[in-house]
Amino acid sequence: MFSRLLFSKQARLKHSSVSALFVAASLLAAMLVSSAHANDVLTYHNDLSRSGQNLNETILTTSNVNSATFGKLLTLSVDSTIDAQPLYAASVMIAGVSHNVVYTATENDSVYAFDAESGEQLWKVSVFLSGETAASITPLDCGQITPTIGVTATPVIDRTSGPNGTIYVVAMSEDASGNYYQRLHGLDMTTGEENFGGPVTIQATYPGTGLGSKNGTLTFDPEEYAERAGLVLLNGVIYIGWSSHCDNPPYTGWLMAYNETTLAQTSVLNLTPNGGRGTIWQSGAAMASDGSNIYFLDANGTFDTTLNTDGFPKYGDYGNAFIKVATTGGLAVADYFAMYNTVEQSNRDNDFGSGGVLLLPAQVNSLGVTLNLAVGAGKDTNIYIANESNMGKFSAKGNNAIYQEVEGALGSGMWAMPAYFNQNVYFGPQGGTLKQFTLSDAKLSTEAASTTTETFEYPGTIPSVSANGTTNGIVWALEHSTPNAVLHAYTATNLSTELYNTNQAANDRDHFGEATHFGVPTISDGKVFVGTTDSVVVFGLLGAK
């Protein structure tokens, strides 16, 4: 967010006669603000690349993260399940007092702000309207999101938006007559009050003859969809990708854009307009971005194997594909990759859609050429690395025209997304070990450099990384066991070295109950935040609340 603020200031200066002194002061002030909030986690998996890494963690080290000095500090109670990743903002002024704040949202349509140090609840708001509740969806309920659907996706925060900063949330609700609503909210970071005249009810139409269409038009039905993938904030626009609820047709693949300061819809794209299915869910992972384009893995659905002269599906149907969407001038597919057997894989429900996309830092190959690469993996045990400038499209000739494919490397499917740190990529497939792969000459190793001793049952694990620059790298991972999930910490250079887990301390000191379905640990300022079925649990150095 702050790099965008600095850029806009510099751009304005080109057309201004403001004195050099004022220019220097303005830039210095902006840089100081950015530095003061360097540990903020304002979006899913820390950044638009979805790296999952916090490189400004100076408190937690490989020496002090152990059961003697590190453990559970606080349990922040909430009113329902937390499926969204907790977010963190430092030095937020609330009622004249500066707080380090952890924000969370529940499936009961509640949004909370807690003091991360004391555990004090600073505010709580319900985001359904009068006469409504969180959605029950009883006739369709399949256990995917239960017993209610409220806020599922990880919100996103812009500290420069509105008078005090804004947290953007999508919430589902139901009225007494059984009508369902999906709404976008922009809540003041300091009070929880609605900004910009919100909320806005999400509605959309798109030309097409796909499932549920009438007279050549698709209409978004709020009952059919859940907003699972985390929200994306890019260049002043909120992007929302929709998943089906319970895979109950008719549904298609919707992607929508909203202006962050007016909450007005600015663009709509349907990814299977003349077919069906093909939604965006990614096990809760937010879509990634390079600053102008959006990247994601689309779920099983219609893919047109007949291509136009540019190599794109003839009827605009991109089910089960690795997709790049341009955002300038409206949403449009700019490039894609689909497996040669995508239709077969899709029909077997062995698709991409369960995984999330990670954008790597620029990589230099053996010829000295710089490449921008995107990494993704779904249910088929393979890792796919696409060149962002030429993703490979579709070939029916029995081979995949993609930059790199590491076949069978994961051993089992991904219902998660990877993390990145210091030329390493970490994958946590379901039913397998957490695995470290290395990058060299712009290629990913074909075998894991290290693995954990522990295996991670369904849905696997979505790792996060804390480090101080390139030192003290720690990989954090949630094991979704019952009745108590386990938080693990591993040395980032060798996953066989476990530093800590929540079963190590005597007398169940660090047990914390059941972690949420696709839970992601958030690490900042010496603390680790974990969402559960009824709380946010805070871990840190003992005696250092």
Question: How would you characterize the overall build of this protein?
Answer:
It contains three helices and 41 strands. Mean pLDDT is 93; it is low at 1-36. Helix 1 (2-13) runs antiparallel to helix 2. The longest helix is centred in the N-terminal third of the chain and has 17 residues, at 20-36. It is mainly β and 545 residues long. Helix content is 6%, strand content 36%. It folds into three domains: 1-36; 42-126 and 424-517 and 519-545, no CATH class; 128-285, no CATH class. The strands form eleven sheets. Strands 1-35-36-37-38 form a five-stranded mixed beta sheet, with no helix packed on it. The two termini are 28 Å apart.
Mean pLDDT: 93
Distance between the termini: 28 Å
- For this structure, the quaternary state is single chain
Shape: globular
Radius of gyration: 22 Å
Please state how the strands of the largest beta sheet are arranged side by side: 1-35-36-37-38
The portion of residues assigned to helices is under 10%
Task: List unreliable stretches of 5+ residues.
Answer: 1-36
Count, helices: 3
